[in-house]
Design brief:
The chain is of the alpha+beta class. The protein has helices at residues 19-30, 47-58, 62-66; strands spanning 2-5, 13-16, 34-37, 40-44. Helix 1 (19-30) packs across helix 2. The longest helix has 12 residues, at 19-30.
Length: 72
């Protein structure tokens, strides 16, 4: 993940997420076996789980995730 913030008003922010790295970590948390070479998935034990995780990523409310633990 990377964050880019401009130093002039109105201070826009761009956030980039590496989807493959996110999927790799998510599959590891779920205990799903997979094989990677570099930034490529060569095989995934449970493709339905991988697709479900990717679909869930699209519905993530990023503002809430990024503000988690922050006093607002």
């Amino acid at each position: 993940m990377s964050v880019r913030q401009q130093t002039w008003f109105p201070y826009p922010i761009q956030i980039a997420l590496n989807g493959r790295e996110w999927l790799r970590r998510s599959l590891e948390k779920c205990g799903c076996n997979f094989q990677m070479k570099g930034n490529k998935f060569l095989s995934i034990e449970d493709y339905e789980l991988a697709q479900w995780l990717l679909d869930r990523q699209l519905r993530t409310r990023w503002e809430g995730c990024l503000n988690a633990g922050r006093d607002v």
